[in-house]
Design goal:
Blueprint lengths: L15 E5 L6 H11 L6 H10 L5 E5 L2 E13 L2 E11 L8 H15 L4 E4 L6 H5 L1
Parallel strand pairs: 4-5
Antiparallel strand pairs: 1-2, 2-3, 3-4
């Protein structure tokens, strides 16, 4: 019996592998996850802007060879400070609520701090279940 998209995937935390962006072969994986899970459409140029200029700030999470999460970030000067920015953060639904996004964020922020960032910002769209049902 096949699991529905909403069912939680059963796994041990140690089965999740995290890796830094390692080149063009990772780009379709990132694009697929973001296009599948986020509401804002991005062009190939947007993805390349981030992963080519800040590859060290892009991480992917895998479970048994399947890409299940990603984070894409940048950093730079902003109002006399060096600031990091989380542009895209995705974990597919069956894997949510298990600390994978937290680990992706932690890894990115660690690299940002090591690079001299004094602050990090993240802009997200919050979807209220109450609003969706009313």
């Amino acid at each position: 019996m096949e699991k529905s998209i909403e069912e939680k995937e059963e796994f041990d935390e140690s089965e999740i592998e995290y890796t830094s962006y390692a080149g063009e072969h990772h780009l379709p994986l990132i694009m697929s996850l973001v296009d599948q899970e986020l509401s804002e459409p991005y062009s190939i140029f947007t993805y390349r802007y981030f992963v080519y200029l800040w590859p060290q700030l892009c991480f992917l999470a895998f479970h048994k060879g399947r890409c299940i999460g990603t984070i894409v970030c940048k950093m730079g000067e902003h109002r006399q400070t060096y600031r990091g920015y989380i542009a895209m953060l995705v974990v597919i639904k069956p894997y949510r609520g298990r600390g994978i996004a937290s680990e992706l964020v932690t890894r990115s922020i660690k690299v940002m701090m090591e690079s001299g960032c004094e602050e990090v910002c993240f802009s997200c769209i919050f979807t209220s279940l109450f609003l969706l049902l009313s």
